[in-house]
Structure formats: structure tokens, C-alpha cells
């Protein structure tokens, strides 16, 4: 080892450090995909629960995998209209439930009732006046749920568990 | 005391070797898992809905996961899709319509010749089995969001007489 030219020693040390960083990133990726991930949620559709300008949230991935997501949970879900977008909404009904919702609260009080089909969930934003959710695109297949939101990290005044 | 020390020393070397071997197996499984999720995986597919392309009793196919992530899945591809009716089940079907396409399909070919036409909404795909007489697909549960597509079937590995790429 002592006989190696100094250049190769530097290369070897650089490689070791890179490998350590790579292992750390792999561990981070695995944690993000299977345990718990952080997500930035912004927009008006979940007022007053989440702020307009953006909240940093923690979402756990275990409940969704084991089918333990139920009504009242806030979930992050892949949008059925744009597969590259992830949105945060609240689950209002699971398969078999009868959901009654106000179709267009800004214009009228008309309600409609729908039964959530098998394998689907009904999601709505907390701010129904400004939310693009199941009232527009219908019940969403359960397989699109990415995780369940349980904690808010930022802003600091809102730090704590999310109900 | 020396006897006890020697005993522990012998056991710790065995434990260390066992741990090393376990780490090698664990690293191999991790690599296999990453390859399965992000590159290419093998699946056993069975059922009558994709006859004659895929056999009734079961075929082992290779599905690649890179195209779906890059959004390069298109018309005519055989894909693995998470079932919208049962999120724990993965089904194999062919994409017959992309978002914006107008699909014309036979609603119930066993009983009647009635056709229906629908436009596939944004972000969705229309999937049908090759054997429309015995296939539960978009004609029953409607267009499927693109986000449910798990992979694109590219190669058949078993049975050996069917070995080769799947059109």
C-alpha cells in the first residue's frame, strides 16, 4: 500500500468517500420509498388544514401498503389526470361507502350521492370551494395512493401531528 | 476463566463469519429488489384474457419498468397494470387507447354486437385483453389512470417454445 503513487491514494480515498455518500443516498431512497417521506404541499385546496404557500409534511408509506387507509385520513395520491403530479387530499369514503357531496358550492347547494366502487376511494380537499378532487374526476383507484400524511414539519407554528 | 474466554472467542468468530455471509446474501437481495423495481422483473401471468398472445395456464414474462417511468408506453403495448378493482392484484392487458383517443369497443361480444364509443380522458389509458370474449378490462371498469401502469411486457421466457419478444 505504501508503494502506491500518491495520486492513486487520492483516487482511492475519493472512491471510498463517494461510496459512503452513495450508500447513504441508497438508504435515504429506501426510507423514502418504503417507510416515510417528506412532501411539500401547496395550493388552496386543503385550507385551513394546510397553508396556501406551502407546508412541509411527513407521509408514511406503511398504512397504504397494508390497506389501512380510511375515511378522514389525509393522503398523498398520484393525480389521475397527470401521472407525474402528486396531490394531497383527504379521504372521504372507501369502497362501498355512500358519499354525499356538494357538486359546485360556489354556484349552488346541489348535492349528489354516489357509491364508491370496489377498489376505489373518494378524495376531497378540505376547501371544497377551490379543490380539484373526486367531485370532478370521480373515485380514484386505491392503487394510486402513495402515502398517509401524519406530521407537519414546516412552518414551525404548525409543527405537530396532522389530523 | 481462560476456558470461558476461549469458548466465547470461538463462538464470536463463527458469528462473525455467519454475519458476513448474511450480509452478502442481503446485498444480493437488495440488488435483485432494485433491479426488479426499476429495471426489469419477471412475472407469471395466467388466465384466458390474453389468448392467443399469452397462454391460459401461465407464461413467465419479462417486464421492463423504465418505459413507464419515462412515459414512453404507447398504443399496442402489453402492460402490467395494478387492477383498479383490487389494488393487490396485477393484471396483464394491451393498451388500445391513449389519452385523447376515441375508442370503439364491443360491450359484450358473447351476447350481442352492440358497440360503444368513448373518448379516453386526460391521464388515462384504455386497456383490453386480446381475448375480448373472456377479459375483464376497460370495457367493464372504464379507463385506467396512467399512474397504475407498473411495467411493459417485452419478452416471454417460459414456455420455451414461446421464447421470444412479444410484439
UniProtKB/TrEMBL annotation, chain A:
Annotated Peptidase S26 domain ranges read 22-101, 111-154
Cellular compartments annotated:
Mitochondrion inner membrane
Q: Mainly localized where?
A: mitochondrion
Q: Which domain of life is it from?
A: Eukaryota
Keywords tagged on the record: Hydrolase, Membrane, Mitochondrion, Mitochondrion inner membrane, Protease
Tell me one GO molecular function of this protein: serine-type endopeptidase activity
Q: Name one Pfam family in it.
A: Peptidase_S26
Active-site annotation: 45, 89
One CC-aspect GO term = mitochondrial inner membrane peptidase complex
GO-annotated biological processes: protein processing involved in protein targeting to mitochondrion; signal peptide processing
Q: How does it assemble?
A: Heterodimer of 2 subunits, IMP1A/B and IMP12.
What is stated as this protein's family in its record?
A: Belongs to the peptidase S26 family. IMP1 subfamily.
Q: What does this protein do?
A: Catalyzes the removal of transit peptides required for the targeting of proteins from the mitochondrial matrix, across the inner membrane, into the inter-membrane space.
Can you say what this protein is called? Mitochondrial inner membrane protease
What species is this protein from?
Actinidia chinensis var. chinensis
UniProtKB/TrEMBL annotation, chain B:
Q: Where in the cell is it found?
A: Mitochondrion inner membrane
Active-site residue numbers: 49, 93
The keyword Hydrolase is assigned to this record: yes
State a single Gene Ontology molecular function. Answer: serine-type endopeptidase activity
Domain called Peptidase S26: residue spans: 25-105, 115-158
Q: Which SUPFAM superfamilies match?
A: LexA/Signal peptidase (SSF51306)
**Keyword Ribosomal protein listed:** no
Q: What is its main location?
A: mitochondrion
| Family per record | Belongs to the peptidase S26 family. IMP1 subfamily.
Q: What is known about its subunit structure?
A: Heterodimer of 2 subunits, IMP1A/B and IMP12.
Primary role: Catalyzes the removal of transit peptides required for the targeting of proteins from the mitochondrial matrix, across the inner membrane, into the inter-membrane space.
Q: What is this protein called?
A: Mitochondrial inner membrane protease
Record the organism: Actinidia chinensis var. chinensis (Chinese soft-hair kiwi)
Amino acid at each position: 500500500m505504501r508503494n502506491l503513487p500518491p495520486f492513486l491514494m487520492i483516487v482511492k480515498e475519493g472512491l471510498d468517500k463517494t461510496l459512503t455518500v452513495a450508500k447513504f443516498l441508497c438508504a435515504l431512497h429506501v426510507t423514502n420509498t418504503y417507510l416515510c417521506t417528506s412532501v411539500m404541499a401547496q395550493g388552496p385546496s386543503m385550507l385551513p388544514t394546510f397553508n396556501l404557500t406551502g407546508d412541509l409534511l411527513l407521509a408514511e408509506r406503511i398504512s397504504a401498503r397494508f390497506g389501512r387507509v380510511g375515511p378522514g385520513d389525509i393522503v398523498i395520491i398520484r393525480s389521475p389526470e397527470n401521472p407525474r403530479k402528486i396531490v394531497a387530499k383527504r379521504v372521504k369514503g372507501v369502497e362501498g361507502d355512500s358519499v354525499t357531496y356538494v357538486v359546485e358550492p360556489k354556484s349552488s347547494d346541489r348535492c349528489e350521492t354516489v357509491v364508491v366502487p370496489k377498489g376505489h376511494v373518494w378524495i376531497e380537499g378540505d376547501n371544497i370551494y377551490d379543490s380539484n378532487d373526486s367531485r370532478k374526476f370521480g373515485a380514484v383507484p386505491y392503487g394510486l395512493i402513495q402515502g398517509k400524511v401524519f406530521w407537519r414539519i414546516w412552518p414551525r407554528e404548525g409543527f405537530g401531528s396532522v389530523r | 476463566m481462560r476456558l470461558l474466554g476461549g469458548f466465547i472467542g470461538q463462538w464470536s468468530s463463527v458469528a462473525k463469519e455467519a454475519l458476513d455471509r448474511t450480509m452478502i446474501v442481503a446485498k444480493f437481495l437488495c440488488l435483485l429488489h432494485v433491479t426488479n423495481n426499476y429495471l426489469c422483473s419477471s412475472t407469471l401471468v395466467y388466465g384466458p384474457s390474453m389468448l392467443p398472445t399469452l397462454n391460459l395456464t401461465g407464461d413467465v414474462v419479462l417486464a421492463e419498468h423504465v418505459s413507464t417511468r419515462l412515459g414512453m408506453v404507447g398504443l399496442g403495448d402489453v402492460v402490467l397494470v395494478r387492477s383498479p378493482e383490487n389494488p393487490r392484484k396485477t393484471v396483464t392487458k394491451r393498451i388500445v387507447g391513449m389519452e385523447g383517443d376515441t375508442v370503439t369497443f364491443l360491450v359484450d361480444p358473447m351476447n350481442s354486437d352492440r358497440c360503444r364509443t368513448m373518448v379516453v380522458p386526460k391521464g388515462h389509458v384504455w386497456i383490453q385483453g386480446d381475448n375480448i370474449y373472456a377479459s375483464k378490462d376497460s370495457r367493464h371498469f372504464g379507463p385506467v389512470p396512467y399512474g397504475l401502469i407498473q411495467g411493459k411486457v417485452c419478452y416471454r421466457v417460459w414456455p420455451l417454445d414461446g421464447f421470444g419478444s412479444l410484439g
